[in-house]
Amino acid sequence: MMRNILLVDDDAVSNFISERMLHRFDAAANIFKAENGRRALEILNDPVLSFFPDTMFVDINMPVMDGFDFIRTFSETFESQFNQVQIVILTSSLDNYDLFRADRLGIKNYLVKPITEHHIQALFL
């Protein structure tokens, strides 16, 4: 199934790898990228784009607005759509506290970078 995907990550290399893998497996109809949580919220609120993701890959360590603040704000701002969007934390952090914080936000998909073929199959197939 082709999905609308939002990559929220300040690392251009990670975004490039993620985008390539998603296209390789025909998982994405549209991919938008945001370098931080604040920019992601701007994209989601932009009426001109008329884009809303089916899946979001969110890094947790970013400048301006980190991934946890973004997810919390997204859940409050888009409360009615929150449970309809698959949120995947895609990070380099293996810190148990980060895993705990993700769980408290209701995020069940916590992946360690880079995204792999196995990750995509587990998420989308």
Automatic annotation (TrEMBL):
Residue list for modification 4-aspartylphosphate: D59
Ranges where the Response regulatory domain occurs: 4-125
Any Pfam family the entry gives: Response_reg
GO BP: any one term: phosphorelay signal transduction system
Keyword Phosphoprotein found: yes
PROSITE patterns noted in UniProt: RESPONSE_REGULATORY
Annotated keywords: Phosphoprotein
Protein name in UniProt: Response regulator
Species per Swiss-Prot/TrEMBL record: Chryseolinea soli
